[in-house]
User: Fold these one by one.
Assistant:
Number 1:
Amino acid sequence: MEMKKRISLELRNRDPAEVRELVVDNCRSADGEVEGLTEEYTGLEVLSMVNVGLSSLAKMPSLPKLRKLEVSDNTISGALDTLKEKCPDLAYLNLSGNKIKELSSIDTLQNLKNLKSLDLYGCEVSTLEDYRDTVFQLLPHLAYLDGFDQDDNEGPDSEGDNDITM
């Protein structure tokens, strides 16, 4: 199913501004971009677009209340700078299983001052030497990387936990 159609089905006759959580996992993005999601979703706090064929977040609409973004298992390789402008309140970002190869790709996440949890598991960047130490230095406000804190203690499980208390 196409992402645009899936998003309209998920509305279930509600006003887009009323939607707090939107899950469109495993549907298809026709052009590798976010489709069908508009700036009308002003109350959206949780967005999951896992395995939808995204190669970019450039067309992400402005979602000022978004706190949790799941975009694992896509082909995103960078251009994450749009997140600061479009999702300034982001606290949890899951990019695992994407095509992020270099630390420079995540440099711009420094601007997301509320970002507490970042998941890059399965991305090529996670195989770099001193990856964990470097990311924690690059993003000093980060509490968890790939589910673990700086001391290698496991973080709270975010599965099904939409009330991010960080």
Number 2:
Amino acid sequence: MESVQQLAQKLKQNIANIIVGKEHEVDLLLTALLASGHVLLEDVPGTGKTLLAKSLAASLSLSFQRIQFTPDLLPSDLTGIHYFNQRDGEFHFRPGPLFARIILADEINRATPRTQSSLLECMEERQISIEGETKRLESPFMVIATQNPVDNQGTFPLPEAQMDRFLIRMKLGYPSTDEGVEILKRTASVSGLRVEEAGVTATKEEVLEAQRICGQVRIADDLMGYIVALAEATRDHEETLLGISPRGTQALLRAAQAYAALQGRGYVLPDDIKRLVLPVWTHRLVPRKRHEAGHGQTERILTGIMNSIPVPSEKELESGVN
């Protein structure tokens, strides 16, 4: 676990050269990376969503593609096409940007549902089917999508099936006063570091090994039962239309393992789960009055459920660790 923690520290220090503050958000981003998951960055323009995604990509020696999602973007623009080569008289495949390792899907909700659906297979199954042929995507593979929740003109809301593919949804929020001053200082300084100048701190092999180690983090049976109890409570809640699915419980488990490894631990604590419930589950929970309530409704429901479900005791955890 020390190697995972050291890798995370190197990445956080490198990202801190570009991003001011946002330590918790960076931890969540690295949690998704180590858990082989995807991230949806949702906030108003100008808060650093794209900059954070590019900073992570610049810190990794992995192929990176930024895709600007627009209404005229076609699925073939993402997956690639077969074209006829007149020189040899044969068809060849030209891979699209989805064949990179790190994908920045900028303003993903501006693309049509048809184009958005082309991401479902690659995000879940790590493969792309084109004209009856299935092409595998190499690991690690991560999609970091951004969207502006305020601007509804010219956008297409992401369907529940696609939202469920994201391991974590998070908001960056506005900086504090001190962070705002530091941002201006870096902007005014000619020596301010740009994303293109950030050094690579992690290789593909290091990331794959860290992902493997995170999958070995221990979690007690009672904590697994705690996750299931939380999920069942969302399904029975009077204000929910769709509760957390088994895929959602698996996502929380993987995220908790990765988060524990980031802290240098080989075991999951109840606090790891409680800290990750909101970023992992808020976008998976569908309230009955979702069109009438604000974005905080699902957070309120989940917070109430966490307060009502008892956390396993220390003795129960010690007896249930695998």
Number 3:
Amino acid sequence: MADPLLVQSIRRDAKPLTQAGDYDAIVDAVGDARIVLLGEASHGTSEFYTMRAEITKRLLERKGFRIIAVEGDWPSCYEINRWIKNYTGAAATARGALAGFGRWPEWMWANEEIETFAQWLKAFNGIREGNDRAGIYGFDVYSLWESMEETIRYLRNTNSPELDQAIRAYECFGPYGRDEQAYGAAAAYALGESCEQEVVDLLRDLRMRRMGTNLKDEESLNAVMNTLVAADAERYYRAMIHGGPDSWNIRDTHMTEVMAQLMNAYGDDAKIIVWAHNTHIGDARATDMADEGMVNVGQLARERFGAENVFAIGFGTYEGTVVAGRSWGAQAAAMRVPKAMEGSWEDAMHEAGVASGWLLFRGRESDYGERIGHRAIGVVYQPQYERFGNYVPSTMSARYDAFVFVDRTNALKPVVLEPVLS
């Protein structure tokens, strides 16, 4: 049973999110923050995508935000960026731009919700130029091979002096046949030579020659960022073999660095919106992640840019359906999300009668300062075992600045979707 005092506080403080105008209050609450972190309790819930899109639209229109960084691969997301900015050689349609998401879990971005949002972004940019156009970028670390290939493509097309250096770096990974785990194991256990120095040297040289990169030459920025991805991906896959917090910390530190690089590229007054899982955007220090030695974007952004400049919004649900896989790499399917565990944060929101609404924690820290289980669903999901590992002990008012809740949610709509599983 949910804590009656907590339920009472939620009933008092919750504001509705049932009409378009209700989102304006969230944007007002953001205030002067330059970084807005928009979470999600799963990677496969339609409402999380559409509601983040509504908030993002208002931040672009009313607050002057122009950068959107999402939990996706840089090369694939850059195809959307090319399309919404009408770059030469971009895909003909939004669906065509999404075709680049071939890496599992492709449904995270190759879905109808993102297609619709990308079409809106293209229209938004249609009457703007240069730095006034919105850009969308992937800030994750997984695309080792793809990022190296994109770097070589750019260097070859521009007859750049770093081309031979980039080819040598890429060839270092050749024996591992695009198998990140095979490379990580070989490098971690000294079964082969690490390629770390090759990609680090390439990143250094590209940065030195392109320190003046700006949005007049975004393709050059693209090359530098792809090389940054390759350098950090090499470290990530090497650390992943050993287990522990290091690989996670490399990943979230990379995400934060990409945010900083993008803000630098857009200029001194740049503002950025981040779309990522709650486990990334909610301050790790307010969860048991800290006990494991883990950091995340929410923590690092507050430390690096100042807590006053960061506004983090968590998202959650009580029950519904979600897209996920039964195991890593498995076929995506719509699955049932069972009713939230008794005594959890989601249970309290449900008991308070919040159908679709939001809470502002700032100014109410004492009312939401107790640690409580808070549901997190990943790309791999087995609902029958949910209560044994899907609830993160969290101090909600320290983890987020605000929280959006939908009592019953629905699976997002990938291009191809399997029938709902019981």
